[in-house]
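Structure tokens please, single chain.
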Amino acid sequence: MHDLKAIRENPQGFDAALARRGLEPVSATILALDEERRALTTSVQQMQSRRNEASKAIGQAMAQGDKDKAEALKAEVAQIKADMPALEERDRELAAKLEMTLATIPNLPADDVPEGADETGNVEVSRWGEQRHFPFPPLEHADIGPALGMDFETGTKLSGARFTFLRADMARLHRALGQFMLDRHTRENGYTECNPPVLVKDEAMFGTDKLPKFAQDSFCTTNGHWLIPTAEVSLTASVMGDILDDAALPVRLTALTPCFRSEAGSAGKDTRGFIRQHQFEKCELVSITRPEDSEAEHERMTAAAEGILQALGLPYRKLLLCTGDMGFGARKTYDLEVWLPGQGAYREISSCSSTGDFQARRMNTRYRPAGTAGKAEKKTAFVHTLNGSGLAVGRTLVAVIENYQEADGSVLVPEVLAPYMGGVTQLIRVA
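Here you go.
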């Protein structure tokens, strides 16, 4: 959600920031709605004040024996009462329309975000790791996986396209990756492990900018709950409506959960294999910070995600996304793309975003800054929120399969996962 006061003060700047995202100016529309609503609100308040004054004057007129004046005042009060409901309803309609207009406008990009229309405008920041040189032509995971327990046919039989049934050591390796990520983030990176609901209400989805714009991308139950597209929703919305103590910040949360996405609009993309699924697991990272700390927290979070790839020995590159490729709620985003030798390409495995106070305004989440001598200020301020993948488990499994494949079709298990694999060091053909 955007700061309406800031738009009033600098509409040209607001439109200029949206133009960097390739969007048309909207400040005039917003300010026209705002002006109409404020005028109507003022009228309603004036009518309420006049109704109260006239009601008191009726008693005074009666006490003075001025029945004509009393009757005139009664008629005035009755007319005000008759007119008020329509005006109040219109006030609510304008407020809802203004809120909906603001809710469908994406976040403004940070000043250092490069301009670009699409992914071709992204800027590579760095690379890590050496790409393995294979003495044989490396295969894609979709060609290696089925013999090792990555069962696409049963997944499709049970649930349709983009569902997969993992078996035996393939399922164990998937579990091991998720557990390793959680342990690393909690023991070394300072995140608190959570086990949140994966079914949430409208308010949680709206607060984390998934509604109303992305309703078609998510699954909704018959009783109105939403299956989370990412644990970002549950973790970030856990502070919805709260006023946090300054001393409690930053709040760092992590969770390994199933995630569910309808993938609307992605027809034809990554239909083969385990890259783009309707159901998948992800280890999510969320931070709630003071505004002045959010930039450093963004770098810290991205480094935590990078650390998982480094520990697994998976080559990757770090990209700063351009204005045309950032997500709706993001102010600034780093993508980590892992090297997949079977595809001969880098593919996204993590996206770490700073949203500024965009989500906090939608959730009405604030904190009370510490004042002088450690005393809290009376005035509250919006927190900043950040979220990132640390990492997407399925895509990490794909990366391990392709980078650790052997000529005989087996897959070596990265050494760092040994404590989680019960002595299994190599995935071999399932009987």
